[in-house]
Prior knowledge:
This protein is α+β, with helices and mostly antiparallel strands. Helix content is about 30%, strand content about 20%. It has a five-stranded antiparallel beta sheet, sandwiched between helices. Strand 7 and strand 8 form a beta hairpin. It is globular.
Amino acid sequence: MWKTIADFFTADNSTPAPNSLPTPAQPAGLYEEQENRTEGQSGANGRYSLLVVSPYTSPPHLLDLATLNPSQVYLARALSILAPVTHAYAAISYTKAFNWVAVLTALATAVRDDAFKWTEQFFYIVVFRSRVPPSTDRGHLGELDKRAHAEAMKSGGLFKYWFGTPDADGRNLATCIWRHREDAHPGSSGEGHKAAMRATINMYSEWHIERFKLVIGNNVEKWNLSPWTD
Length: 230
């Protein structure tokens, strides 16, 4: 079902308001703008910049907006504010766990203010749900994750990566938002990602993957987030 920005939360009064949580601890937003970039390489509105798109802020983990088309730049910037709307994000439906209304509102405002013509397009989302026992070496998991993320950024097409902190029961959630499904395959085929996946056998008590399709209509006037079907 298509949704407008205004009606997403009205159907279920149990869904928390988008800004009900404190500001997330992980960084989000534009990295320091680069003054010595190659002439002619720019993102939307001609601005030169790298974007922080994950908890990792060193150069190998930043998104180079010059590699994207203008529509993709607008979405990548809007996704910089993606955050959970409830501390139970790992236990509830993915569509209700994040501030999608705020993200899409930011996108709609940006394209309207710049008089940019946004045409309907869709994007590929992967969700990794897991549970780790208390004995898990989370530091080691973090190093594996960091390496895998750097590989994904190098392959291209990853707009956003977010992960939380395991709750009292060890449950957690991570999500990747990709330009296309085709980008996700090379982005997850490196040695770092393979090592991280091997770790799931010994270091997670349970895990599973969900896939979603985010469709954003013309002028960002409507949108839909639904399970991906082949």
